[in-house]
Design goal:
globular
Length: 139
C-alpha cells in the first residue's frame, strides 16, 4: 500500500525537522515536502498534491490563515494546524476551523518548542490517521 503524503508548512527549520520525524515514525505516512511560508506552501501543494498538510499559522510573507483561504481552490488536501497560536478557542484556531482545518493542535511551550515530539507527537499522528481514514489503532 502506498504511503499517505504529507506537506509540512512551518517557518522554523527546527520545527519542520521535528514534525518530519514525528510523521515518519508512522509506516503509512511520509513527508514529501516542506515550505517555510504560505506562499511557498501553495506552490508545493500545486506540485505535490499532498493528502494532508501540517500547517503553522504565524509565518512571514503569507500566514497559515491566508494560505487556507487560497487552498480551497487548489484541491482536497486535509489541513491540520500545528501552531503556538492555536490554543483552543483562540481567534486564530476558530478561524482555521471555519476555513476547514480538520483539527488544531497547539505547540507546547511556545513557538520554538523542542518538546513537541514528546508532548504532541502521538496526537499529531493520531489526527493525521483519522483525517486520512487510516486505522488510528495501528499507529
Amino acid at each position: 500500500m502506498s504511503k499517505k503524503q504529507i506537506l509540512v508548512v512551518d517557518d522554523s527549520f527546527i520545527m519542520r525537522t521535528i514534525i518530519k520525524d514525528i510523521v515518519d515514525s508512522d509506516p503509512e505516512l511520509e513527508v514529501v515536502g516542506f515550505a517555510e511560508n504560505g506562499k511557498i506552501g501553495l506552490e508545493r501543494v500545486r506540485e505535490l498534491k499532498p493528502d494532508a498538510i501540517l500547517l503553522d499559522l504565524e509565518m512571514p510573507e503569507m500566514s497559515g490563515i491566508d494560505m487556507m483561504k487560497r487552498l480551497a481552490l487548489l484541491g482536497k488536501s486535509k489541513v491540520i494546524v500545528v501552531s503556538s497560536v492555536g490554543q483552543t478557542g483562540s481567534p486564530q484556531a476558530l478561524e482555521a476551523r471555519r476555513l476547514g482545518a480538520i483539527d488544531v493542535i497547539a505547540k507546547p511551550s511556545g513557538a520554538m518548542s523542542l518538546d513537541l515530539q514528546a508532548k504532541k507527537g502521538h496526537e499529531i499522528v493520531q489526527v493525521l490517521r483519522r483525517a486520512l481514514s487510516l486505522d488510528p489503532t495501528e499507529a
